[in-house]
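Lecture 7 notes: from sequence to structure.
We start with the chain below.
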Amino acid sequence: MSHSDSVQKKPRNFSVIAYSDNSKFAILEHVSKKIYSTQFHPEVYHTKNGKKIFFNFLFKICKLKKNWTDNYKILNIINKIKDNIKNKEKVLCALSGGVDSTVLAHLLLKAIKKNLICIYVDTVLMRQGETEEIKKAFKKKFKNSLHIVNAKNIFLKKLINISDPEKKRKIIGKTFIQIFENFMKKNKNIKYLAQGTLYPDLIESKSFSGSPTSIIKSHHNVGGLPKKMKLKLIEPFNEMFKDEVRKIGKFIGVNKLLIERHPFPGPGLAIRIPGKINEKKIEILKKADKIYIDELKKRGLYKKIWQAFAILLPIKTVGVMGDSRTYDFVCALRAVTSTDGMTANFFYFNNNDLSEISNKIINEVPGINRVVYDVTSKPPGTIEWE
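Predicted structure tokens for the same chain:
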């Protein structure tokens, strides 16, 4: 498939138990030693019977007994946090309002209630109305530990004339840390930074083979962090996928509306505006994205989609509005189905829905005169464009 690699010669004493059109040795088995190999990814959601392969291997061949329940995971995380943090030490939780940081904040509240400080940074790169939603959602439960930092001008200034996506991610990651460390100087005993880092963030940000070509992109919270930091990291989800974190959130009673939100990247709209960023482009994209998401909810499609968002492309096209010529930006729409974000298929829209959403964006958002829909799956494309 996308790897273009295959085993060409069968090792001695191995037998073939599965093959495909482009791989003679899709699964090999050594009967006496109970060794199995695959030439595909049984762990990803879109592999048929992938879960069954793992189930058979773990429980029928290895004879394991399952003890990794949601309750076990939660108690394990809470106990580790309690064991590592001393009485007066405080934890700063980077709260974006997304699924991962929200569930993490709730777990930290259970573990170290008085020692928790949650910081939401308004970067200007958030979705329309995001800051108000965060205040409303967290004000009551986190009233003594929630701090909102307005850093719009800081981020805009640092991203002027930056078009390379890797540079954007690294600048944003370092700026977040600078803001947290500045906050730390004014508040005593903050020793830790808690992040909702997931396993896919690590997979895409770091090379396990040592080859620079296997780094797909630097997530702002992994490859985007500065080498030297004054805060120690706490990342209890860094071996989990988003569907696992959602299950934990549901188990501990996190607000359903927060748990069901579509993923939103830490760098925000910066990586949904390919090329250079400015305030005008950000405002155009915010309006288009708001219309898109509101329409999905209105049409009962939001929960059927893993992630949906608009992208403002760095090209302009000629259009006609009324009797006048326009020369405005192109907006791309993206919607995918997935469970863990490692693989994804584009969502098959009803033609009427896609047409009506497109027309609404063009008619109501000044600066956009053309809408396109992305029909790329992952792989070969990533879910985000940058």
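Points to note: The chain has eleven helices and twelve strands. The two ends are 23 Å apart (CA to CA).
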